Amino acid sequence: MAGQDRKKFAILGVASVILVAMVVAVTLSTRNSNTNNYNRQQDVSASQKSIQTICAPTDYKETCINSLQSAASNSSDPKELIEAAFKVTINYLNEAAKNSTVLQELQSDPRSKLALENCQELAQRAVEDLEKSFAMFQTFDVSNIDDILADMQIWLSGAITYQETCLDGFEDTQGDAGEKMKEALKTSMELTSNGLAMINDISSVLTTFDIQGITNRRLLSEDVDILGHGVDQFPNWIDGKRRKLLQATPSTIKPDLIVAKDGTGKYLTINEALNDIPKNSNSTFVLYIKEGIYEEKVQFSKSHLNLIVIGDGPTKTRITGKLNFIDGTSTYHTATVVVLGDFFVAKDIGFENAAGPEKHQAVAVRVGADKSIFYNCHFDGYQDTLYAHTYRQFYRNCQISGTIDFIFGDSASVFQNCTLVVRKPLDNQQCIVTAQGRKDVRQPTGLILQNCSFVADPAYFPFRFQLKSYLGRPWKEYSRTIIMESFIDDLIQPDGWLAWNGSFALDTLFYAEFNNRGPASNKMLRVTWTGVKELQPTRLERFLPSKFIEGDTWIPTTGVPYNPGFIFPPPKEDARIKYSPVAPEETKDLGKGKDKDSYTAPPSTTTDILDVLPPSTAPFPRTSFGLPPVLSPIPAPKGTSSSPLKWLVGKLW
Fold first, then answer.
1. Which of 114, 187, 194, 196 is nearest to 152 (CA)?
2. DSSP string for 394-405
3. Rounded to the nearest 10 degrees, how much is the dihedral formed by the CA atoms of 59, 60, 65, 66?
C-alpha cells in the first residue's frame, strides 16, 4: 500500500475510534488483508475478532461489542464503518432527548419538568461534541495527531459531563423521572466512556499498524489550526486582526460594539448588543461594556466565537442577577452569565449572583467554552459562584468569592495568581472552596490552583474558627484538584479537605498540595484518605498549564500573563518524605501509548518573586453585599499588579 493511502486509512481508522463505535482494527486489518478470495464467513470472523480487540481497553465491553456488531454489518469499507459508528451513538443520544420530552409531559413535579428540559439541551450539546469531533477529522493532517487527540479527549469528556449534568438535575425532585432518564442515558453514557477509553489507547493502536508520519509535536499558538467548531475551518485562533490590534496604539483601536448604561454607547443593555455580534465568525470581535451595574441574565451562545468582552474594571463594570435554587430555578440555569462560545476572553469585568446565602445554589457564571480566558475579573456569590463546567479554561489575576463549593464543575481549568475569598455562611453551614466533578477516570479534567491566595472576607474573619472552611470536597467519584505554590491563610482547617458523603470517593479522588505557604499550608494534620497524594515535582509536571490545558498552544499569543511551568523553583525530592505510590488510575487519562515518564516542566520564568505573587489586598467590589471590605488581616505576601505589554485590551483606552 502506498504511503499516502496508508496515511489516509490511518486517519479514517482514528476517526472511527474517536466516534465511539471505534472500529480502527476493523478498518485497518480488514482493509489491509482483504483479497478476492475472502468469503463472507471469513469477513464475519475477521470483523468479530477486530471488534473484540478494539473493545479490550473499555470499561463497558459488552456494550462496545454489541453496538459495533450491530453497526458494522460486516463491512470492510472505512467510510461505511465510520458513518455507521457515528450514527449509532448519535441515535442513542437523540433517543434519550426524545424520552426526556415524553417524560416531561407526564410530570407534575415542577423541578422534574425543569430537569427534563435541561436534559434536552444537554443531550444536544453532547451530540454536538461528537459531531465536532467527526468534522475535525475531515481535513486533519496525521502529523499533528497529538494536538488532535488532546482535542478529542476534552470534547468526549464534555459529552460525558453533559450527560452527567442531566442526571444531576434530578436531585431533590419527586417521582421516578430521574431513574427513567438514567436508564435512557445508560447506553449512550457507556458508549461515550468507551470512546474516551479508546482514544487514550489510540497511540498504541497506531504503533501496532506502523503508521509513518506520526509525531508527538505540539503545535505552538502561531501554527495551530482549529477545525470543527461550527464553521468549515478556522485560521489561527489569534487572527490577523487581533495581531494588528496587539501592535496598535490606543488612538487607533476601537471596539466593534459599545454598551453603556449612561447612554453614551449604541446599546443600554448587554442583551440588546448580542443580536449584533457576528455568529460563527473566525475573526476577533470586541464588545466593550462601560462602567455600570447591569442587572440582566446574559448568555453568550456557542455561535459567539472569538469574542473579547472588556469592561472598565471588575469593580466598575458589573453584571448581576439573583436567580437561585430555592426560588425554583435549577442550578444549571441560575447563572447570571453563561459563556458557551469557544475562544472567549473576558477582561476587567465583575460577575455576581446576589441571591444571598439563604437561597442556596446561585451561580454567577457558567462556562462551557473551550479555550476560554478570564483576566482580571471578579466572580462574587455564595454557594456555587463559578461553574467551570466543561472544556479548557484559564483564569489569571481573578478574584472568586463564595461560601459552599464556590468553584465547581468538570472542566480542565487552571487558576493562576487568583484570590479566593471565603465569605460568611449561614450559622449551620461550612465553607468549601472547590467541588470538582470528574466522573470518569479517563477524563483529562480537574481544577489546578497555582500561586493563588485562600483568604477570609472581613465579615467572615471573626467567625473563621467556628464556621469552618475547607479546600475542597469530592463532588464526583474521580474528583481531581491540585493546589500548588499557593498561600493558604489560617481560615482553612488543619485537616484540609471535607468528605462529601461518608466514604464516597475517598479512595478514588485525586487531591494534592505542593509547595504551598501560609499559616494553614502545613500538611501534618491533613486527612489521610487514599486519594490524597504526596507527589514529587516530576509527578506534578503533568498538571502545569503547558501540559494540562496545552496552554502554550493558545494562551501566549493573547498577551495575557501566563506562566507555563512552575512559578517558583520546585523543591527537590526529599528522602525523608513518604511519597504516594503511583496507582494505575493516576495516569489513565494520559493514554497507554504515551510515555508517562517523559513529562518535563518548562523552566521557572520568575525573575522577581514579588512580581508574580497574587495581590492579597485587591479592591473588593462595591456591590449589593455592602461596603467594600479589606481582606484578611493575615494577608498573603504583598503582590504587584500586572501590566502585560501585548494584551489587546490594555491598549484600548
1. 196
2. EEES-EEEESEE
3. -170
Q: Please report, as a single letter, which amino acid is at residue 508.
A: T
Question: 81 φ, ψ to 5°?
Answer: -65, -40
Q: Is the pTM of this model over 0.90?
A: no
Of 71-80, 183-192, 504-513, the range with the lowest mean pLDDT is 71-80
- 245 exposed, middle or buried (CB, 10 Å; 0-12, 13-18, 19+)? buried
**CATH code assigned to 3-208:** 1.20.140.40
Distance CA(236)–CA(302), nearest Å, equals 19
Q: What is the pLDDT of residue 75?
A: 55
Looking at domain 240-651, its CATH class is: mainly beta
Q: How far apart are CA 506 and CA 524, in angstroms?
A: 18
Q: Report DSSP state, residue 302.
A: T
The grid coordinates of residue 379 equal 466572580
The three-class DSSP label of residue 148 is helix
Please tell me what DSSP assigns to residue 48.
Answer: H
Structure confidence by residue, pLDDT tens digits, 349-400? 999 999 999 999 999 999 999 999 999 999 999 999 999 999 999 999 999 9
Residue 384 among the catalytic residues: no
Q: Which residue has the cell 455568529?
A: 279
Phi, psi of 15 (to 5 degrees): -60, -40
DSSP codes of every residue in 310-346: E-S-TTTEEEEE---TTTT--GGG--SEEE-STT-EE
Q: Is the pLDDT of residue 25 over 80?
A: no
Nearest-angstrom CA–CA distance, 127 and 159: 7
Give CA–CA dist 486/305, Å, rounded: 33
Degrees, nearest 5: CA angle 443-449-453: 160
Quote the DSSP letter at residue 11: H
The reported pLDDT for the residue numbered 83 is 56
Q: Is 496 left (phi over 0), alpha (psi -120 to 50) or beta?
A: left
Quick one: which of 346, 329, 428, 433 has its CA closest to 381?
A: 433
Domain ranges of the chain: 3-208, 240-651
**SS3 category, 514:** strand
Residue of 33, 171, 163, 20 lying closest to 88 (CA atoms): 20
Full DSSP string of 57-99:
T-S-HHHHHHHHHHHHTT---HHHHHHHHHHHHHHHHHHHHHH
**Catalytic residue chosen out of the listed positions 405, 410, 490, 552:** 405
Question: What gap in Å lies between CA 240 and CA 557, rounded to an integer?
Answer: 12
Which amino acid does the sequence have at 63? T
Q: Is 321 exposed, middle or buried (0-12, 13-18, 19+ CB in 10 A)?
A: buried
Quote the pLDDT of residue 148: 81
User: CA-CA distance, 495 to 401, in Å (whole number)?
Assistant: 22
Contacts of 3 (CB under 8 A, 6+ apart): 212, 213
Average pLDDT, the chain: 79
Q: Is 517 helix (H, G, I), strand (E, B) or coil?
A: strand
Confidence of residue 32 (pLDDT cuts 50, 70, 90): very low
Q: Which three cell numbers stand for residue 386?
A: 463559578
- Tell me how far apart the alpha carbons of residues 350 and 364 are, in angstroms, rounded to a whole number: 10
Would you say residue 300 has pLDDT above 50? yes
What pLDDT, in 10s, does the model give residues 544-588? Answer: 999 999 999 999 988 899 999 999 999 999 889 999 999 888 888
Distance between CA atoms of residues 590 and 49, nearest Å:
26
